[in-house]
Specification:
about 280 residues; alpha+beta; Deoxyribonuclease I, Chain A; 6-stranded mixed β-sheet; 6 helices
Length: about 280
């Protein structure tokens, strides 16, 4: 079968539906209605084929999908609470899927590790229409608090919770890999940097980071800035790649090539979300 080129994206959209008082006082608008227009612009400019989302409310999803369809973009949405998948209907059909919330419990340890029930995964098995090949694509969002004492949002065992959670999604993906005998890509906000225990766990389980296997020189930025309920900063943090928490991981099959690895951080994106989209061009 011939190979084809695809653009894969991970996108944390900052789950927020209504304008906040601090924004309104500054004459700004961080509502879903205002920010979704910027996301539509991103998708129009980059034309991703599959987007693994995090922090998307049902209202944001409704407005985004209505907007892209009105804009002539051929996207559909596989719903998965805060972690839906958006994909090109002219390029793919879904032949299997699975959504799950990460458990609140970490076996053997005290504490709740999904306190708002927003941390979840969404898996889709796609058939690529151009060449008939199968691809497993998963988006996920791991637990967010810190294991470091004397830091904001400290909660003991948080690193272990992320390790446990990434292990769960990898185990589930392996079930689909045995069934469909095809490569897999995991994207998402792992709330851990390149040197974190959860990323190391994925690498130890046989995955590779798209940054490390990109044929073109990879983007070395972290794609993070301040954008929250009390306002946003008019600049991106000068953090290196190792501090990034949005990742693209994949199984190292020879028929799956990473041609490039990039983050999208234009000026207009600053009031849209605290995470820049990360994307890669692949051949499969």
């Amino acid at each position: 079968m011939k190979s084809c080129s695809l653009r894969i994206m991970s996108h944390n959209l900052w789950k927020n539906d209504v304008n906040k008082p601090a924004w309104e006082e500054k004459g700004l608008d961080c509502s879903a209605d205002a920010r979704v227009k910027g996301f539509i612009k991103v998708y129009e400019e980059l034309s991703p084929d599959i987007i693994g989302c995090q922090e998307m409310s049902s209202l944001m999803a409704e407005k985004l999908m209505c907007g892209v369809l009105e804009n002539g973009q051929k996207y559909a949405l596989l719903w998965g609470k805060d972690t839906p998948i958006i994909y090109r209907t002219d390029k793919f059909e879904i032949i299997d899927s699975h959504f799950a919330l990460y458990p609140e419990e970490l076996p053997g340890y005290e504490g709740c590790f999904n306190n708002y029930k927003t941390k979840s995964w969404n898996i889709a098995v796609f058939r690529i229409k151009e060449n008939g090949k199968h691809l497993i694509f998963a988006t996920n969002h791991l637990w967010w608090k810190s294991s470091q004492p004397n830091t904001p949002n400290y909660q003991p065992y948080s690193d272990l919770a992320r390790v446990y959670q990434i292990g769960l999604i990898i185990t589930k993906i392996e079930e689909y890999r045995k069934k469909y005998d095809c490569p897999a890509i995991i994207v998402g906000d792992l709330n851990g940097g390149y040197d974190s225990q959860c990323v190391k766990t994925a690498l130890e389980k046989g995955y590779v980071h798209a940054h490390d296997v990109s044929i073109a020189p990879p983007d070395e930025s972290a794609g993070l800035h301040y954008c929250f309920a009390d306002g946003y900063y008019d600049y991106y943090y000068d953090f290196p790649f190792e501090k990034a928490i949005d990742h693209i991981l994949l199984t190292p099959e020879s028929e799956l090539k990473i041609c490039s690895f990039n983050r999208y951080s234009p000026k207009y994106y600053l009031p849209l979300s605290d995470h820049s989209p990360v994307y890669c061009d692949i051949e499969i």
